[in-house]
Amino acid sequence: MKRVLTIQDISCLGKCSLTIALPVISAMGTETVILPTAVLSTHTMFEGFTCKDISDQIEPIKQHWLKEKVEFDAIYTGYLGTIEQIDQMRALFKDFKKDDTIIFVDPVMADNGKLYPAFDMAYAKENAKLCADADIIVPNITEACFMTDTEYKETYDEAYIKELLSKLNKLGAKVSVLTGVSLSEGKTGVMGYDSEKDDYFVYQNDRVDATYHGTGDLFSSTCLGAMMRGKTWQEAMQIAADYTAHTIRETMKNPAKPWYGVDFEATIPDLLAKLN
Ligand code: PXL
Which of 56, 103, 138, 165 has its CA 20 to 30 A from that of 128? Predict the structure, then answer.
């Protein structure tokens, strides 16, 4: 069985980051080791959330694991809290990266043209540096714009996306994937670029007209979970895009749907059926 380490916050209520990555990657058949970076009462879209940064635990936890000679097939970072934590991730990658360890970076910090409440431009620049150490990065268009000093556009064409991918590629990851890319009316999906093969990949499915928090985390977790089960990154993106859209559609059918997250718990069996 493969083993993934995922490093993100725990939002106790809210269905995002670790409360998605842990159940989803585990259910997909991969051991999921977690390193929480902060404990929040809820994700940051709730008013009045509490937050306890636990950066000071990262080093002792890491040292213990090094002593135990733990190895990871992939390391996946998502929402981190501070510039210092991003620096800690760069050191952690060096400590644990073997030849075949996949470093998967989702530089979670922004959406819809805006940074999340906790972040500023300095944080975005530091995330750009973290991307240099990755095998695969999966920013949305907003995050890509902040990391590459590009103007954010609501309406765009394929040339704009290719230019963004080319700028992302210069940050240094082997594969850059942009999420939330809509190349025609009523469609949405991903477009990626593999710098080693000089190859583009596009996948578009039907757009679902609803936005929920945590869907980016669901996409990333599913994608890495599929890669751990032997899928190529292109196959994994397709599985993750379909599963995320399916989960949003199913959530919308729920009369008591939570505004703060999607009902991925109900759709995991469908994901496993697709995977096997
Ligand atoms: O889903 C991304 C995410 C993760 N963690 C926290 C968040 C968010 C998005 O708002 O607030 C704490």
Answer: 56
